[in-house]
Amino acid sequence: MHFTIEVNNIPIKAHKGETILQALQRNGIQVPTLCYMAGKLPTGACRMCVVEVEGYPGLIPSCSHPVEDWMKIQTHSPRVIQARKAVIELLLASHPDDCLYCVRNGNCELQRYAEELNIRERKYPSRSHPATIDKSSYSITRDPAKCILCGRCIRICDEVIGVSTLEYMRRGNSMYIGTTLDKPMNISNCIDCGQCVVACPTGALYERDDTDSVHKALYDKDTKVIALIDATTGISVAEKFGVKAGKNLTNILVAALRKIGVDILYNYNLGNDIYAHEMARYLLQANRKPVISTSCPAWVKYAEEYFPSHLTYLAPIKSPMEIIGATIGRDYTASGEKTFTVAITPCMAKKAELARACNAINNQQVIDAALTTRELVRFIRLHGIDIEHLEPELPNDPYSTVSGAGLLFGSPGGESEAIIRSMLAMQEKSALISARIQKLRASKPIKEYTFEINDKSYHFVAIHGMATAGAYLRSLPSMKQPPDYIEIMACPDGCVNGGGQPIHKNNESFIKARTKSLFELDEKSSLKIPIQNPAVKKWEQNKPDTSILTPVFKQRDALL
Amino acid sequence: MMAVENDMQMPPFAAQYFAWPADQLPKDLRKQVACLRRDTIEKLHIFIAMDTSGIVAGAKKTLEAVYKYLNERGIEAKVIETGNMGISSFSPVMEVQLPGYSRVCFKCVTSETVPTILDAVLNKEILPEYAAGQYKNPLHEAYENVPFMHEHPFFVRQNRLILKNCGHIDPVNIDEYIAFGGYTPFLKAISNYTPDVVCDLVEMSGLRGRSGSGFPVGEKWKITLTTAADEKFLICNADESDPGAFMDRTLLEGIPHRIIEGIAIASYAIGAKTAYLYIKNEYHLAIDRLEKALIQADANGIIGNNIFNSGYSLHIKVVKGAGAFICGEETALISSIEGNRGMPRHKPPYPSTVGLFGKPTIVNNAETLASIPTIFEFGPQWFSKIGTQHSKGTKIFTVSGKVRFTGLVEIPLGTTFREIIFGCCGGMPGDKNFKSLLIGGPLGYCIHEDLLDTPIDFKTLEKAGFTMGSGGLVVMDEDTCMVDMAMYFASFIRRESCGKCIPCREGSKRMYEILEMITQKPAVQSGHDTLRRFKGIMQLGRLAEVIRDTSLCGLGKYAPNTVLSILKYYHTEIEEHIYDRQCRANVCKELKTFYIDVEKCTGCHACASKCPTQAIIGSPRKPHFIVEEKCIGCGVCYDTCKFVAIYQK
Predict the structure, then answer these.
(1) Of chain A residues 161-200, which have a CB less than 8 A from chain B?
(2) CA gap B489, B442 in Å, rounded
(3) How far from the centroid of its chain's Cα atoms is residue B585's Cα?
(4) If we measure between CA atoms, which residue out of B163, B169, B182, B217 comes closest to residue B395?
(5) Is B499 close to A83, i.e. CB distance below 8 A?
(6) Can you tell me the ipTM of this complex?
């Protein structure tokens, strides 16, 4: 049911049951928000979205109040602006005056609103609460002094990831956000996905910066630096360099890194191809169901904490990064050269994954550093590289090529699609491969697809969002027929929305652009199946030992 | 008493006098009821008011002394522990009733005075220096020269409907409660009326919520009754955290069965089969008595499955709070019962449609629920004759502070504040002048003497710009500094804010800092500081307005009220703090300065050696001098000086 309301003296259309904010946004009227998370229920905590409604004594939070058909709303009256200004001034008064030293300088919501609301005066003497920075975790650093207690990190960790590492502690002025029993992050139940960092409006949560170790290695004459760039990173940096979002800059990044001094650039996504290839082979002869993916390190950590009994269902195949890492590691251990291998992906959990004992050869990590997309952007800027004027370059052989299937991993369902292509090819059914499996490309939290090979039916399930996956796994025992393969991506919307991706306040359009770009790359690619990739063929001929390709999973104790 | 359908089963004892009018009760039962009502008693009865204010005043010792007295003399008597009879400043209260004679109330009875008083009573002599008054009963012989309690200025204006029998009956004896007509209203309701009719009758009575918001009770119940859901809940809010309010505590300690009855009627009216009673954890005595009362009510079939064979079942669960003021707010309370952090939620949706566990829920204050039985005992028309046009019935006010009689005053709405403070409570003790009245606790208002003649009525108060809140009244005299009070309220809000929304969480801190600045002496005095303090006060007003307009829940919305009302009515006093650096009530220590009278000072140097900031200078045997900038007003020198040479201004 529609009706008309008056906003800023202009009539606009509203639907019954929607909130004032939804009606405003649909009509292109922007109202500032801090605690609001698109697609989730409102909490009404920050009071930034307040509007003036005729007849109401106070100011109404537009995010949580349903719209009614007699409403006359003012979104930017002096009273409303005074209230919003007061909210930001109060936040600034408790915030450290650290902008120039802060990782979010230039991309901080507090900065943005302070400017938008034209705040030019320190109304209250600044007195921020002292807090110790928690640097214990491999991937996430917490600085509670900069926290504005908006609660977005809590909600995403609780509602989307289902791990609930962070929670409000104490109340009132002494309220802060902490982990269970105030333990450091590295011994909390955090799975390192980094979604809290993407959700945080300020610099209270940020990634551990590993660029220093890369930089040092670059200037060490005796060390050969090998970099692996994920195509998902390649299509995610465009807007950071003034180019239209979603444009594929992977080969430009290759050129940039070569200019910076990286010795060898390999194609990270080859790891995806090999993973899909090996998984297809495993599934064709597997005699138990379900087989669960191991490509997402955050999911693996979650399984070790919460589903130790399901660890036997995880495929005995390492993740793409560790497969290619082990391959490179074996190559260079044989040659005896000192190397420093850095993987550049949208993922935060890889920073912890690379340190796992099973991923070392002769006690040496095969991957020495995992950089996120954000760190790469900073690193390139640090070196003053002019992206606009670079020509694209190709990665080094023998690990330079990737098939379209390997590029799909960045979107949830893509990994399944790649494996299905491999399975069909292995069973001489390449003719049945479809250009796109729409069921696995839809934007649903749980995607399912069933297909047949030689009268045997295979049921694939692809889930993104750890909370959804956890609920699905808990319902497994009650299923008559469990699926053959379950692909789990901890981050909602998969790696294109990974914890290491560039942070934007409303990133739905960016996620869409990145996903579209990956599908286009697959479409344009002449190689569709991993086995068609010459690099995969070569790898098959010179395959590393199973001992360095088989992962080891162990139950972890998780604090609540 | 009313007629009951014959096929409704009731517990044996209750059955007979529920069914029969009093004068038609069988003879043996009539005697029992008369005994329970203390109309006719066989032996000496001694009542000790064992409520929290009594215990704090020493009632436990009084009780021990009474038992000792009786045992030593081998006297057979019935000793009953009751709730608060109304006047807290009389605590410890002991009431004595001899068979055939009226019950006498004795005030401030300690273990020393127990023997004296009881010796006299056993000789039919009432010592006037201890007696507060006697209770009139046509079946009892009255004592001479002992005033009647109902003529005491405290009680004369009151209409104790909610507090009926509080302080007079054993709280955990269900038979006494029933003997006085308790639970009959509940039985009337469930046997004669359907839930929607019960809601109509409550709406007809005009009862409005007694927690402060004043929403019409029947109307709210109807919303929940008509919302379709498989489960509904009633929550009784006994998380009374307003400093200065203790009516819920008194009701739960004195007449817990009445609260249970109110909950039962309300639950029936909205179609709830489960009711929760959320009570403050710190109310140990109330929780203890309440739990005992619930066991009794359940054992007698008044709550539980298929009550009186009516088909209606009700289970009441007690949930204890954990000490957060914010959990008295209905959505935070619901959150707390659900096991989550006690943080309020945005409204709409209101709990009456989406509440506990997502089901339609009514949250009613304990006092509101205790008002319900009266409506069904005497009828809604009778009820609506009490009070004013817009505010029906009676309200309990808990009066404390600088008055002669502190305690619980239950007056018909429409009475003025002056009648309560200067009428019931006897006005100011000693010769101090009235300064301010705090109404409604830390979310209330501090009003000036000029407003004391405002009748207590929802509409009138709204027009005057304030509300009655939960009914806690604290009287302040000229020895109270209003700026200090404002600071106390600001610090209260700071401590109790839940932290969810920014205006309340951050704003309360800043309000406190601004007020602190006014009461403190800066290290170096300069013209700048006065301007800073003045700007601070202007900012305080604006900040308080933003907090009031923008906050999420009632705490934030009403928290700035006390500060704003003090700014409004006591501006001169604030200006004195800002410009003159004077505190007229002599409370703000830092603003006190001490001076040495040069005529009296002998130069003994004793004060100088004690001064913590070395603010006193002078040569030996010559008059000394206090440096004003260094003086922090601690008063050590004042206490040290043997020659009374130091005075303060």
Answers:
(1) 168, 170-173, 175
(2) 6
(3) 27
(4) B163
(5) no
(6) 0.87
